[in-house]
Structures are given as C-alpha cells and as structure tokens.
## 1
Amino acid sequence: MSRAFGLGVVAYVVPTFVIAYPWHLTVFAPSYHALAMYRDDVIVPLGLLSMLVQGVLFSWVYPRVFAKRQSVLRNGLLYGLAIGLLSWSFTTLAVAAKNVMTSVPLYLTLETGFTLVQFIVVGPLIALAHRR
C-alpha cells in the first residue's frame, strides 16, 4: 500500500465521520427521526465500515482519474464534485426512491446538504494526499 493511497483513505474516512456523526446523530437528529425511516439504535461500526470501503475505492480511483492535472485545490474540488455526484445518486436519490419516509423533500434537502459539505471537504483532502 502506497503512502498516498493510505493518506487518501484517511482523508476520506476521518472527515466523513467527523461530519456525518454530528450531522445525522445530533444536529439534524430530530429531522431524521421525523422522517421515520431510520433505526433508533444506529450501528456505528457498520457506518464506519461503509466509510472505509468508500475511502479505499475513492483513494484508489483518484490518481487514475486526475493524474497530472492542475492545482491540488482545483483537482480536489473537481474530484469532490464527481464522486459527490456519484455518491448523491445512490445515497440520496436511490434511497428516496426506495424507502418509506414521511417527507421525501426533507430527506433530499438534508442528504443533499450533507453530501455537499462532505465532498467539498474530502475532495481536496484526497487530492492533497495524492499530490506529487
């Protein structure tokens, strides 16, 4: 495992957890509870495992997609946009389409906001981890 790859995984997992935990389980917890779609006793280790799998994949893809491009910030924001859009399609749109909830618009608003914040942060951090 290369140093850049490992740093890229950490650059995804740590900030994602730091953003996701308070977003979903404290700050907007009442709104998510009102959606009546989540378990009361979330299984945090499964969420962390999910983040780890995503971090491995996103860190592995970055140097293959953004090899030798412009600045770290520009690359990171573009990469964040790309992987954020992909993530949003299956963590927000697909979930809203398949799950019973009290308000699809509320869910879309909450998860779109979370996805924007998450990938504005992790995109540049992954790019920074892979800088040459």
## 2
Amino acid sequence: MKAIICNEFAPLDQLEYGDMPDPQATGDQVVIRVEAAGVNYPDGLLVQGLYQSRPEHPFVPGMEAAGVVEEVGPDVKSLKPGDRVATICTLGGYAEKVAAPQSRVFPIGDMDAAEVCALLVAFGTSHHALKQRAHLKEGETLVVLGAAGATGIAAIQIGKIMGARVIAVASTDAKRAICTENGADVAIGYEDLKDRIKELTDGKGADVVYDSVGGAAFDACSRAMARNGRLLIIGFASGDIPKLPVNLTLVKEYSVVGVFWGNFTRFEPQVYADNMAELLGWYQKGKVKPLIEGRYPLKDAAEVLGRVLGRGAVGKIALIP
C-alpha cells in the first residue's frame, strides 16, 4: 500500500511517499481502507521528534482515519467487511489502509469521512476541554485563542451549545469572519488582548480561556482572567511555551488546567466513549459542523503539515489516499 513514511525524525520535507506492507487483521484488529485521514498539529511535531512520544522508525503518522472495513480479525464480533467506520489510531492514518482494534473503531454510516475525522481529535479535544476540564457553565464567557483552526472552530461551536458567550481570537479579518460564521458572538485580534477581553466583559475578565497558542497570548490572558476562571492549556502553536507568574493565580483566584486528550482517552475510556456518542449525536442533528478547508492527495502530506504548523490553515484539512 502507499503511505507517508517517517524514516527518521527530521524536517517535514524528509517524509517519504512510498510503499509499506499492508496491515493484517489479527486478533481483534480491523483493517480499514482509508477514505480520509485527518491532519492534526501534533502529527507535524511527531515526525520531527518534537512531540511527547517518539515511536520507533520507520512509522506512518496519522492519528485519525475513516473509511470502509476491508477485513476483520477472528476475535472481532461487532464489525464486518463493508461497514463504514472511523478510528483513532496512535499511528498509521496517513496510508491507503490502517489497522485498529475494534474497541477504537466507530461505525459512521453514511457520514462524510473527512468531517468525521474532524470530530475525532479536533472536536474531541475541545469537547473534553470544555466539559470535563473547564466545566463550562451556561452564561459564562469563553475566550478561544487560535479560533479559526480546527480545534478553535470546535471550541466555538461546542461553547455555544453549552450556553457560553464566545469571544474568538484570530489573526486576520478573514479568519475572524470565519469565527463569527461558526457562532462566535464577537471576534477580535491579538492586539491589546488583555484590555479587549476586559472591555468585552465589563471589567470582569474571562471565565474560561481555551489556549492552543501560548506565547504572548497566554501572557495576556493570564492577566485577564475572572475570579474562579479556568485557563485551559491545549498547546503551543506559537512555538513559545510561556512561563506563568504564579502570583497571578493567587491574587486573581483562577486555575490553570492542563488538557491532554490522549491521556483522557486512555485513562477514562468510558467517559471518552460517552463524549464521542454525544458529539456524533450533535453532528447528526446539525448542532456541530466541522469546517473542512480542503481535501488533498496523500502524497501532499508534508506540504499540508507545513501549513498547519505555520498556522496558515483554517478549519480541518484531510488527506485523501
């Protein structure tokens, strides 16, 4: 099969589009012929050796894929060839075929494969962040940084479902327009961010901040939190991991809360399954709608990852084998 191969931790342009052995359906494994693989920010870090995990080489990146079951292992009871499914896979999504245990495979019926991929990691991360980590309440103010990206769009839509007032923060007029189209009550830039948040909350500050950016934006938000606020640490798309003056958390009485969706799926599998059921239900009812910026050939993975890491992407990007 054709796949994107990481032969060593190296710059993105060292990724190879080549041949790998087809995966086998052993035990409880399901082999899926991939219709779409979702592109995520951590994928680009992983292949450069900049992520928390460092798999052995060679490996195929890609943590989410959707398609059609081609083969099932002898221990698989709930799925059969021909079923359309999606999976969260630690590795292997950037390929024509991927194998995954049946416990991490979800039936998707006639849903769009690329949109379902967006629901898995991007919407899954934002859902967990706002529901289990922030305990976002109706009527609270949610500030979303990096709001035009895949997880940002998800946070906007989910925040509105949960009853929050959403302030989106994005870098350009075009991105801010996308944020308001996806439900944000107001969209602002990064200039004078602390003062703008204070102004838009009548001096109270943000109840919840969803921060996938880090750097100077984190510094501004750490000074614009409401009492009992929750500052969610999602990632560091700016490339700058900030340092927190902890005296701010003392005098302003807010919490800094880490969000590591991968750990959540491993340590709380039933809660994760319940979250996915809720997300898929919202999708089927039209309450959430992933924004798919583009669908690109699998061979273009390195170029696409470069755009994602450079914060040039809007919404979700899918690779199509």
